[in-house]
Amino acid sequence: MIENKNRKSAWIAFVIVLLFLALVIVLDQIIKPTDKMYMLLTVLQKGSVYALAAVSMNLLNGYTGLFSLGHAGFMLIGAYTYAIFTIPSTARDTVYQYYDAAIRISFPEIFSGALGGFGTVLGVALAVILAGLMAALLAYLIGLPVLRLKSDYLAIATLGFAEIIRAVFQWSKLGPVTNGSNLLKSFARTSTFKLNLGGSTVSLSTFVPVLIATISITVIVLIVNSTYGRAFKAIRDDEVAAEAMGINLAKHKMISFVTSSFFAGVAGATMAMVLSIAQANNFKSAMTYEILLMVVLGGIGSISGSVIGAMLFISASEWWLRGLDSGSFLGINAPGVFRNGFRLVVFSVAIMIVVLFFRKGIMGEKELPDLFRKRKKAPVKEAAE
Amino acid sequence: MSEERKQVLKVENVTMQFGGVVAVNDLNLEVNEGEIVAIIGPNGAGKTTAFNVITGVYAPTNGRVYFDGKCIVENFPHGKMKKLYKGENAGAYSHATEPTPDALTKMGMARTFQNIRLWKSMTVFDNVLIAKHLKRTSNLFSAAFRGNRKEEQAQREEVLKLLEIVGLTDVKDELATSLPYGKQRRLEIARALATQPKLLLLDEPAAGMNPQETQELTHFIGEIRDQFGVTILLIEHHMDLVMDISDRIYVLDFGKLIAQGVPAEIQSNEKVIDAYLGVVDDAENP
Ligand SMILES: Nc1ncnc2c1ncn2[C@@H]1O[C@H](COP(=O)(O)OP(=O)(O)O)[C@@H](O)[C@H]1O
Ligand SMILES: [Mg+2]
């Protein structure tokens, strides 16, 4: 019976997601870059990237109770891996103008040679997966020494890692691979993603990042609802009890950390394809804090919360509050006040208010479908000890 | 004396020292298959610490613990110390693995806690289901993409059966921490049973219960032993419960074993009355 009910809600969710993806494709065609509404597409693109980043961080912070501050570092690795392996050979020497490019492989090129258009898609997909794997590998190497310790060294270690990796990627000795402190560009990016259907071209520049985020978040949801996800939650709720019930702490923390970092890498790759550039200096710890804020805003331990948090955050910072920086906001014209930097002030205050007055975030630990279900009984405080 | 039975647990010369505090001092005890054995003693006597050594939470300062005939806990150098250890027996420990609680649970030991440790954000059902995680055969991928559907279905059914047996079916979808105290204790026992242990360790299962609940629990523990064929080692303060269901009793005081025997022997033991039984009576009838 339970099984049937679950299957039904899974189908409903599936159909809703499909409809959403279809809507995105339609929007992609009807909104032109010159339209005012183009902001909506920008928000959807960047929002997907950050939604995935936030959900993957939530898997670790919210579901497993491990505090890591290295998300920007793993995204950096993802972004660079993706960029390096999708730069076409014709553009390579212009991109690496001061160095002799060491990696001369372009996945989309290799596969399109043999398989045509489908090969390009396959090449991009493989580059995205490789981006995730590289981030996962680094997470594994960091996790080996750090996750065995009982205390919370993970936050410090990952924060340090993120700063170091940013410096390393700008190091001129690694220039042949990373292009030093210069940015990487000309690789496969969303603005070039198009489908040729009998003469008419279908733009996929919003659809692709949304699709990557959707697939990744779906996988994370599946993991969270599997026996492993339950084990993560057990570790978060009570580590001692979890270990006593046969859950190997070091192993499960590692699985969670590596999985979370894999998807951070995928988010980084998606960010690169949305922004059309990859530059190490963009992946500062401020980015990690922004993502953490989205997670807190949406509710730690709620995946739909993280998605909502990311979308709201991006909408506010990229769109709704734009006017605060450029002279007029909500019809009020005051160039003296509304000038560069004011948006950030208002934004910070707004976030402080949310965090102070909605401690549990927008969703708490609930998921969207829970809101349509009958509520569980609230916990009664017990005088236990 | 009891007839010849297979030995499930043997604690040999275990000492556990925390800085200057000797919490357990040269403890020896045995538990045979199918027995219910109790450890009693005043607060701070070292009972919980003994449990923590047996289940691998603490590495003892000295001594060994055998489970099912295998030595599971020994005072060999742990962790980093293992590498640094250059004593005479350095070679003897090179292969030794640290006995972590999860590994011991997989071998067939399960415990409950003195201060109930349920997973607070989860339902009664999920609390028991997670204890089945250690029986999985799936890896992350097959579990995420539901390649383990059959296994999980079977586990869910086992959990339902278990909840039926312990009488928690009607509250299975409620948050574990919303249950009344007595039911939380039962749930913790059910969770431990879900790991299919040979040996069940109960740390003060009747703590905080009223006389009627205690009586129900006494009955319940006996039932579990018969129905699941587990061996039980329990720590308890309620004398009626201990005297009723224990086959044998060990009495600890200041970390030292001061008496052991069948309930009748313990009840009439002078030392025990001095150290312990009198105190409890005072506490219960102020
Ligand atoms: N982790 C620890 N660190 C230091 N002292 C401890 C620790 N655990 C227990 N003790 C001490 O060991 C003694 C025995 O405690 P415990 O085993 O909890 O007693 P009991 O369960 O019999 O009431 C107490 O004096 C307690 O303070
Ligand atoms: Mg105790």
Output mean pLDDT of chain B. Answer: 86
Low-confidence stretches of chain B are: 280-286
The CATH architecture of the largest domain in chain B can be named as 3-Layer(aba) Sandwich
Task: Give the number of helices of chain B.
Answer: 12
Strand order of the largest sheet of chain B: 6-7-8-3-9-10
- Give the overall shape of chain B: globular
Quaternary state reads: heterodimer
Question: How many E strands of chain A?
Answer: 4
For the sheet with most strands of chain A, the description reads: 2 strands, antiparallel
Helix-strand string of chain B: EEEHEEHHHEHHHHEHEHEEHH
Report the biggest beta sheet of chain B as strand number plus sense, adding barrel if it closes. Answer: 6 strands, mixed
First and last CA, distance of chain B: 37 Å
User: What is the CATH C level class of the largest domain in chain B, in words?
Assistant: Alpha Beta
Overall strand count of chain B: 10
What does this structure look like?
By secondary structure, chain A is mainly α. Chain A is built from 15 helices and 4 strands. Chain A has a domain at 42-283. Chain A has helices at residues 2-30, 38-63, 71-84, 89-95, 107-115, 117-146, 153-169, 175-178, 207-224, 227-237, 239-244, 249-275, 285-298, 303-320, 342-357; strands at residues 194-197, 200-203, 328-329, 332-333. In chain A, a hairpin with a 2-residue loop joins strand 1 (194-197) and strand 2 (200-203). The two termini of chain A are 37 Å apart. Chain B has 286 residues and is an alpha/beta fold. Chain B folds into 2 domains: 1-108 and 197-286, Rossmann fold, CATH 3.40.50; 118-196, no CATH class. In chain B, the strands form 2 sheets. Chain B has a 6-stranded mixed beta sheet, with helices on both faces. Chain B has a 4-stranded antiparallel beta sheet with strand order 2-1-4-5, covered by helices on one side. Chain B is globular, with a radius of gyration of 20 Å. Chain B starts with 6 loop residues before the first strand and ends with a helix. Chain A binds chain B through residues 2-3, 219, 222-223, 226-228, 230-231, 233-234, 237-238, 240-249, 255, 259, 301, 365, 376-380, 382, 384-385, and chain B through 55, 57, 100-103, 105-106, 110-111, 113, 115-123, 126, 129-134, 136, 138, 140, 143-146, 148, 152-153, 156, 173-175, 177-178, 180-181, 184, 191-192, 195, 208. The complex binds adenosine-5'-diphosphate and magnesium ion. Magnesium ion is lined by residues 47-48, 114 of chain B.
